[in-house]
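#random but structural
TW: two for the price of one
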Amino acid sequence: MFSLLYGLWKYLFQKEEYFALILGLDNAGKTTFLEQSKTQLNHQYKGVALNKITATVGLNIGRIHTNGIVLNFWDLGGQTELQTLWDKYFAESHAIIYVIDSSDKERLEDSKLAFDKMITNEALNGVPLLLVANKQDIPESLSLSRIKDIFINSNQVIGPRDYHSVSASALKGDGVNESIAWTVGAIKRNVHNRPPHNSED
């Protein structure tokens, strides 16, 4: 009898819990992307005023419930000295969301170097990757196809993993829902590689 009730309780209250890393250089729009994700999936969430967001020093955490799972975001600071901490989170992550400031041509090479170092880390083998070409609302921004040419310049970079790219304006909310929907789908497709944690809320 107990096992039957426990099974029912698990079915009703436990949800699969996953972790997605939001990476990229400082000022790429990572925290804005995170805040828009929380707002678009929970209309009661008021969030932080987007024009008040400052550079992340350390870590921002977000948590959303969608499609029967709990998705936790770790938004990590992108300053050069903070990038050395990224790999501490790789082993626990179920997806990577890499955000690029498409308008910042001067630092595009720096972003590419950080991306290459991240994506070749063995702890991320097979982990789904979403490439977000952010700030597309700025007229001089590079297009998604140009960003892909620069960052995904060979199949060896991606390896055997789920991969998708999206054109976005985190400030306006464009591309955010598509990004989250793809990330959730990719996590579920790859659950055999990285099983979920269990959540009771």
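TW: number two ↓
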Amino acid sequence: MSAAARRALVTGASGFVGAALTRRLLADGWEVHLLLREGSSTASLPPESGQLRLHRHDGSINQLIEIMRAAAPEAVFHLASLFLATHKPDDVERLITSNLLFSTQLVEAMAACGVRHLVNTGTSWEHYNGAGYNPVCLYAATKQAFGALLRYYVEAHGLRVVTLKLFDTYGAGDIRPKVLNLLKRLALEGGSLEMSPGEQLVDLVYIDDVIDAYLLAYQQLADGVQLNAVEEYGVSSGHPLPLRDIAALYAQVSGKPLHIVWGGRPYRAREVMVPWHHYNSVPGWRPRMDLPQGLALFHAS
């Protein structure tokens, strides 16, 4: 590895998007430091090496500052979060701890160690019914709340931040319990599946395109384009489709009939029927993977 290799600190690398970002950074020659909670799985990650180092966070701010100082990253990519589409009372503490407390500890450690560049992860679900701010669920509300906290660190400590608000992500090797894996199981195993009426628009962005957006966001910070603000961008395909159409396309790609009982279950409370569309894209970014090809790669994985 070159002595001049750039250093990154990545949170959330045990997740699908974080693991993909880690692999891409390594392939591009970065030295990558992963910040993982105690007990987080590393099954989807390459083995630790001179180019990849794992740090286990015990939950304390002092240890996090020590990790930040040791890693001395040029950029922090913050993807760690707890996602819950709906929550129960017992989930409130976990959501606040994961999405607000840990995230604030992270930027406090950056400020303490003079680390300035942050690519943060938000969600399009902060914009129910296309509103400037109307969270779909408590998860989305915690993401917005951290965005508000970030502005303090920008103003008081000189952090420079780009937040990427993700829509639905997917790709080869994705095993998350999301709708595409329900369709995949149905195609492979047969049977029938009860779903909502299926009229909601779903905005699917292939994982390679998502990672391109993260790297372009970092480049914007490195080039000094964005100063003294939190710049926010949507990472969208630009072509959301009704869930019914996506299921029909999946059946075509897989070559298997999908027996779906449309309307067999109700829409979820505060179902996103039309995704947020009042966003700007990362300058220079556009999705390259078309949906049929992406679904084929997903199905074959």
